[in-house]
C-alpha cells in the first residue's frame, strides 16, 4: 500500500507515525520548516531532506550512509516496526523521496506509505491541523541498506551500451530535450543517452495533487513501452521527482521496489 487516502489517515492518525517531508526548489523562496512550524498534521515529525543527506558529497540531498540513517531515524523517535505515513506541502511531491529512502534502508514496504494529495488536500477538506511541535522520544532504529535500489554514474554509463535496464527521466520534456535551461547553474542542458522521458506531473491530478488512477498510470508507462518490466530505474534533476515515478510504478507492479539514480542530472550533467 504505497498510498493512503486522507480518509484513511483521518481514521488512523493515532496508530501511525506521521512525517512532514516538505521540500521546495531553491527558486521558490519558500521555507519548508517555517511553514511546518505554522501548521501541520497533528503529531507530524518534520523531515529535512537536505539536512538528512550525505554532506560529504558536493551534490544535493544524496543518500546518507547506513549508520547515519540509523541515527537520524532513531532521533526522530521511529522504530523499525512503526507504520509510517509521509506527506508534503510541495510542488515536487517530496514525500516520495522520503518514502524511497526508508525503503532503501530496509523499512518494510508494507509499513510505509505516502498520503495521496498531501497536506493541501488534507487542508482543503478542513481536517485538523496544529502548530504544536511534538516532543520526540528517541528510539533504536536499525538500518540495513539495499544497494540494488540505487544506481551510480558508473552503472549509468555502462548501461548506455549494455542496456541492462531502462532509465526513465522525470523532468519536463523541454529540460529532457535540452530546450530549457537547467535550474542549477552548474549543469548543462540535455539528457542521458538512451533514457526515456515521463514528466512526473503527468501522473498527478492537478486539481487535488493525487496520483492518477492505476489504469491511467499504466497507460502512461505503456506509451513508453514499459509493461511490468523489473529492470526499470528512474532519474530526474536531483533525485526528488524520480521517486514520484518510482512510487507510481510500484502502484502498477506490486513486486517492484523503487530504483533511483541518486545523482541524477545534477551529477550526470555537471559542467
Give the overall form: globular
Strand content: 5-15%
Compute the number of structural domains.
2
Enter the CATH topology name of the largest domain.
Oxidized Rhodanese, domain 1
Poorly predicted ranges? none
Rounded to an integer in angstroms, the radius of gyration calculated over CA atoms is: 18 Å
Structure annotation, total helices = 10
- Mean pLDDT, all residues: 96
CATH class label of the largest domain: Alpha Beta
Instruction: Give the strand line-up of the largest sheet.
Output: 1-5-4-2-3
- The CATH level-2 architecture of the largest domain is identified as 3-Layer(aba) Sandwich
At the fourth level of CATH, the homologous superfamily of the largest domain is: Rhodanese-like domain
What's the total count of β strands?
12
Helix content: 25-40%
Q: Biggest β-sheet, characterized?
A: 5 strands, parallel
Q: State the secondary-structure class.
A: alpha/beta
> Span between N and C termini?
40 Å
Order of helices and strands: EHEHEHEHEHEHEHEEEHEHEH
Brief rundown of the structure:
The chain has 271 residues and is of the alpha/beta class. The chain is built from 10 helices and 12 strands.
What is the fold's blueprint, element by element?
Blueprint: E1 3-4, H1 6-12, E2 17-20, H2 32-38, E3 45-46, H3 66-75, E4 84-87, H4 95-104, E5 112-115, H5 118-124, E6 150-151, H6 153-162, E7 166-169, H7 173-176, E8 196-197, E9 204-205, E10 210-211, H8 214-223, E11 232-235, H9 242-252, E12 260-261, H10 264-268
Parallel strand pairs: 1-5, 2-3, 2-4, 4-5, 6-12, 7-8, 7-11
Antiparallel strand pairs: 9-10
Helix pairs in contact: 4-9, 8-9
Amino acid at each position: 500500500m504505497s498510498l493512503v487516502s486522507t480518509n484513511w489517515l483521518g481514521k488512523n492518525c493515532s496508530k501511525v507515525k506521521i512525517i512532514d517531508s516538505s521540500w521546495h526548489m531553491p527558486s521558490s523562496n519558500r521555507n519548508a520548516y517555517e511553514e511546518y512550524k505554522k501548521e501541520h498534521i497533528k503529531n507530524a515529525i518534520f523531515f529535512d531532506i537536505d539536512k538528512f543527506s550525505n554532506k560529504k558529497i558536493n551534490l544535493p540531498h544524496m543518500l546518507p550512509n547506513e549508520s547515519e540513517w540509523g541515527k537520524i531515524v532513531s532521533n526522530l523517535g521511529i522504530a523499525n516496526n512503526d507504520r509510517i505515513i509521509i506527506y508534503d506541502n510541495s510542488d515536487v511531491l517530496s514525500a516520495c523521496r522520503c518514502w524511497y529512502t526508508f525503503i532503501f534502508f530496509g523499512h518494510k514496504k508494507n509499513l510505509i506509505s505516502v498520503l495521496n494529495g498531501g497536506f493541501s488536500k488534507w487542508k482543503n477538506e478542513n481536517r485538523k491541523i496544529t502548530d504544536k511541535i511534538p516532543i520526540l522520544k528517541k528510539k533504536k532504529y536499525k538500518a540495513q541498506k539495499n544497494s540494488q535500489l540505487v544506481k551510480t554514474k558508473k552503472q549509468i554509463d555502462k548501461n548506455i551500451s549494455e542496456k541492462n535496464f531502462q532509465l526513465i527521466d522525470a523532468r519536463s520534456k523541454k529540460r529532457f530535450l535540452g530546450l530549457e535551461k537547467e535550474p542549477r547553474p552548474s549543469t548543462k542542458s540535455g539528457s542521458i543517452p538512451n533514457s526515456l522521458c515521463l514528466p512526473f506531473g503527468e501522473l498527478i491530478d492537478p486539481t487535488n495533487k493525487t496520483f492518477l488512477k492505476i489504469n491511467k498510470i499504466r497507460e502512461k508507462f505503456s506509451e513508453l513501452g514499459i509493461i511490468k518490466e523489473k529492470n526499470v530505474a528512474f532519474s530526474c534533476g536531483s533525485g526528488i521527482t524520480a521517486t514520484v515515478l518510482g512510487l507510481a510504478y510500484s502502484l502498477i507492479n506490486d513486486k517492484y521496489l523503487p530504483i533511483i539514480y541518486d545523482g541524477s542530472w545534477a551529477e550526470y550533467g555537471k559542467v
